Every structure is written in C-alpha cells, then in structure tokens.
## 1
Amino acid sequence: MTFVIRIDHVAIIVDDIDHALNFWRDALGLEVTHVEDVPDQESVVAFLPTGESEVELVKPTTDDSGISRYLHKRGPGIHHICFQVDDIEAALVKLRDHNVRLINPEPVIGTGGKKIAFVHPESTHGVLIELYELTPLEPEIRLARARELADRVRAQGQVVAANVLSFLRGLRDTGLGEFFDDDVRGDYET
C-alpha cells in the first residue's frame, strides 16, 4: 500500500528568478501563478504549475540561509522533489521501519500551513525528498499571503504614482511642463 498521492512539486534553486523565467516561462510556456516571499526559509519562490504538479523556482534572500549555502556549494539546479501524502505520520513510521534516515523525524508546519518532513538524501540515492500532507489551514494561509502581497503591490504602486506626479509637477515648475498636456498630467493626479 502506497502513501504517496502525487508529485506535488520539483524545487529548483536559482540565483536569479527573472533570468530563470526566460526558460521556464518564456521558452517552455509555463505560467507563473504567483511569487511568494517565504521568510522562514529565507527565500522567494515562483510557482509554475504543470498538470497536477508544480515547478518551484527558489531564490535565497540571505547569504547565510541553508538554501544560499546549497546554491553556493552546488550551483543552480534541482533541490528537492516533494510528494504529497495522505497521512504524513504514517508515512514517517513506514520509512523509519525501513531504516530510512529522516531529517525531520516528526512533521513540522511548513509554507502555507501544510505538514512537512524531509528525508535525507543519504537514504534516497542522493535526492532530497520532501513529504507533505495538506491541512485545512493551507488554503487560508495561502489566501492571507496573497492578500499581503496584493497590499504590498498596491502600496508600491501608490508610491510610484506619487513619484511620477512629483516628477511631472517638477517639470511643470521648471517650465518644461508645456510638453505635457493637461490630459497626461490628469492621469497622475490623485
């Protein structure tokens, strides 16, 4: 009896998400559904669904995180494969019964509220494996993170609009404003 439901995602460590998207999004045509800041992992993740799975592009946000150390030691590439399981506790018991070395002997709460545990590459022929069980909190946490991101983008957009308005007013005050008609200035007035 298997406890694996599906491959949830393949995580790929990159040093530049925008550059990586030239291949994954532009050349392959995968859509980026969202980009998420993951402070507890000191990373930013771009999510690109493909069928029932995802490719996750992971970029470290600090120089001393585990992901950053991995990137500096091994370079960009596949970091881990994540399997969704129906019961993570039972999966860990089965793996322990088979003398599999676990990084997380008990599940921890990971990104989005899901229960996760990592299996050491020593037991998997060199591949870091993540197991995850969906919890009822995950959709709520993802929605809250999406709202936080939308709020930050909206606030940054307002800052940009205010700066453009200030710039245009500065041009007007220096006499260069004659090159901008009232309709253009009106677009930036709040």
## 2
Amino acid sequence: MEFVTLSSSFYWGFGFLILILLALSGLISGAEVAFFSLDKTVFDEEEPSDHKIKMLLKSPYQLLATILILNNLFNVFIVTLSTYASWQMVGKKEAEGVVLIALTTVISILIIFFGEIVPKISAAHQPQKFARFCLPYIWFFNRLLKPLSWLLIGLSSFIEKRIKKKGYNLSVEELNQALDITSEQNVSKEEKGILKGIVNFGTLSVKQIMRSRVDISAIDRSSDFHELMDQINKTGFSRIPVYVENIDKIEGLLYIKDMLPFLHEEEDFHWQQFLRPVYFIPESKKIDALFKDFQEKQVHMAIVIDEYGGTEGLITMEDIIEEIVGEINDEFDEALDADYKKIDDNTAIFEGKTSLNDFCKIMSEEADVFDEIKGESESLGGLLLEINKNLPRSNEKIEVGKFLFSIEIFVS
C-alpha cells in the first residue's frame, strides 16, 4: 500500500474543520429540541431574543425545515471531507476497502454522539438558554433558506394529504410507548397515569371494570319500609337496585334522595312507587360508548346482563371516570380497601374477586399483561382457575409469567 506524505498542517486543519462541523451539527440538533420544547409562559416580552423566538415559532414548519436542511448539510460536509482526507492519505484505490469502513464507523459514532445525543440532552435540560444561544444562527439561516424551506413544506403537505386520504392508525400499544418516551420530562406520575387512562379508555369493555353480581347491594321488592331503611343505613349507597324473587330479575332503581321526605313513615309505606327505570347494557359494551350514553340519558348507573338476560354486574359513572383519573374514594368507600392489602412494592394480598384490570393498576402493570392466557376470565380468581384447571388448594403456588401467586383460604 502506497501512502501519500502530507504535512502536519493538513492533519491539524482537517481535524479542526471536522470539530467545527461537528459543533455546528450539534448546535442545530440541540436547537430542534430547544425551540420545540419551550413553554410559552416563560417568554419575557421585554427580551428582544424571546420576541424573535416567538416569531420563529409562529411558522413551525418553516423553522423545522431550516433546522433539518442545516443539520443534513453539516453531516454531509463531515462525511465528504473525511472521505477526501482518506483518499489523500492512502490513495483512492486503497481507500475503497478497510479504511473506508473504519472511517465510516468512526464518523458515524462522532455524529451520533457529539452531533445528536449530547446537544439534545443539554437542550432538553435548559431549552430557553439553548434557544437564545442558537437564535442568531437560526434567524439568519431561516431567512437565507426560506425558498428551499417553502419547497420542502409544499412537498410534505402534498404527501401528507395523500396519506390522510389513505388513512392510518396508531395502536394503543404504540401510543402507550410514545407516552413512556415523551412524558419522562416535566410530567408527574399522576399526570402520566391520566394520559394512559385516556389512551386506554376506548379499549376497555364494561365487563373489565364492572362490579360483579356477588358485590351488588340490592333489595327485594317485597321488603317493607323498615327493612329498606335498614339496608340504606348499612350500605350508604345513593342508588339501590330492586329485584323480584332474585337478582336476575331487577325491576327498577331506587334513588335514596326520593326517600328523604318519608324517613318517619311506618313499615307499610309503599316505597315501591318511587322506582325508576333500569338501564340494561351488555357486558361487551365499550366504556367510552357507555359514558356518552350516560351523558345523553342523564343516568349514572347501569345493570350489566349476560347473553341470557341474567344479571352479570353493575357499573356506575364513577367507575368509568376512575379509569382516567384514578380511584375516587369517599367516606363510604373504606370497605373497598379490603379487596387488597399492599405488603411492599412487590407483594400484595388480593381477594380472588379482584378484577384483572384493578390488579394491573395496583401493581403498575400494563392492562394487557394477561390477555394471551386469561381466556374469558376478568377476575384474579378466574385467571388462576383458567390456568390451573382445578380449584387451587391452600398454600398452593401458581406461577404466571413474572408473578408468583400463593393461595390462601380464609374461613370467616
């Protein structure tokens, strides 16, 4: 291999030029993060630089086009100069092999680390300071490259319209992944939970969040007024389903507020005259559609029925809202805490009737973690029966993915 002898000034000049181009590439990459993550409330109206930043952000597509043009130009210059330097050092023929591969690897690492990762992290931590520092360069090139930016914006708008005509969808999983990536900065755990609740809202069915029939507090229509008042005092609910013979034959809903004027009536008081119509829904109904129905019909409770018309469970407006904002507890909800007891971050005691949806929320797991193995089950006990096929014995341990369930049977 024949090497070309070059003076030391060539190496110094080449190295210095590459460093300048890397710095400029990094500056532009950081500017992209800085400008588009700025909170408009931090702008100082009396600060000239902030006024110019606001003007640039009024045309975000043009600003983005300018940044992308500059970033790609600097990166192309780096690669071109590096290739030229390798030809000068080892000759064009020899440079086609190992040297070019090594050069490409080194230059790629330098561009990714110093031209992308480092400046973007710095810009994300102090976006306003970084944006002010970059402003003179971005302002100059934004005007200089305006014709080319307009051309690129026009082409992208044309492509975007074509894509919109064809249509495209994002899966819930992809949206959740996007939330995990984008909400790491400046978003609390509670806010992130609300965002995920909104994303998952349209995917949940009534069956996943309803209160099962064994937990429904209902009363027989044949009960006298004193029996009714006794149950009202014990449960503390504002609405009670009323059935005939058994809970599969719910006839109406009693609103407790309708009973307030008659608290001192005798036991033969005909309270059944105040029953209101029941809203029945199938267990497969999505909760976003049910939420709209609740709003339109101005009701707050629905009875969930199975395919045979039997009572499967009960769902309220509060249950739906809790899927977005988290648990809403009042003085009558203390008993709900008995469904589980958190021992530590990795251990908890659950009742078998706990829904898989609630289990996932309590243990901070994705809602679909059991989808492939749960079958038709929506409760923790149902899941274990689905996997075990037999009724688990006391102290039996069942492993499900990364979870280890130990069965405890309590006799009351």
## 3
Amino acid sequence: MYVIAITGGTGSGKTTLVKSIIDKIPNKDILYLSSDSYYKHNPKLSFEERENINYDEPDAVDFNLLKQHISNLKEGKSVKVPKYCFKTHLRKNEYSPISPKKTLFIEGILILSNSELRKEFNLKIFLQCDRDLRLKRRVHRDINQRGRSEKDVIDLFSKRLDSMHKKYVIPVKKYCDIIINTGKEVNYDDLIKKIKIQ
C-alpha cells in the first residue's frame, strides 16, 4: 500500500485536493482517511469541558489508533473508522468499515507533527495558502457543515488557530516532498503524474 499524507493549515484545501484527485483517476483503487475522524473520545468530560479543549494541537488526536489502522490496512486487514461529531465533540456510536486498497490518502492539519506517524507515509504533500483565503474557506465550511457562527470562527482564528498554525503546521513543511500553492489553480494532471497514482 502506497500511503500519501496531505497536510497544511485549516482551509488550505486538503479535502478538496484529495477528492479532486480521486475524481480524476479511473479504475480507482484508492482509500481516503481524514484525521478529523481520529479526535480523541472524551465522554467523561462535560460538554463545556469538551468545548474548551484545544483541537488544534497534537494531543487532541488519537495518533495511536490512526497508526494502528494504517498498519492493519498495510497488512491486508479491514478497519472500522470512527465517526466523529463536531457539534458534541464526541465519537458517534457507529463506524465506517474500510478494506485495504492500493493507495491510501490521509489528510489532516497535524498528521506530520507525530514522528511515529510520519514513518508510515511514502509521500508527504504540504498545501500552502494565504491566511485570509484560509479564513474565508473555514468560515464557509464551519457555518454550513458544523453549525457555527461567522463571529465564532473569526474569533477562533485570531485567538487560537493563527498561533497553532505557526507552532504545529508551518514547521512540518520541512518534511514534505511536494509543496503546492492552493491559492492558485492546481494542475491535477501534473500532480497525479508526480505522485505516481495509476
């Protein structure tokens, strides 16, 4: 299994990039995982306590489970991917079963911050994008998909996301094999050739 990591700041277009690549490939033998599914489950905490967790630092992610799932898939075993609810900050009581395929895409803001997880990737891609465009995309997504207000998203950006981006996202660029500016139109045909997906 060929494992490709897609990382970059919030709103840099990670999910859009992966889905666009998959759409352009015939006879798809590709899996796609988002690290968003692997936020830690904290049912013993109150909703207020879960609301106050910093979900933009590595400790919020269950890297052990994600790494185990990658290992299982490489060994030809199926896994059950958690379904995470961003409104309650809890995992749902249901899973998405997935089986191994030739190529695995994993996208997430923090996936390269974990040194053990980095060893699992054959190719690492960093998406670079201006802060204002990332904010605009994040506002649109969180209002439409996560039930949040524009003010809350803008406040979160200025109070936490900007500093977390500098602390955890920018430093991992040095580990990446390919850097793409997603503020411009991406040439998917060239990218697919570079990442050697058949």
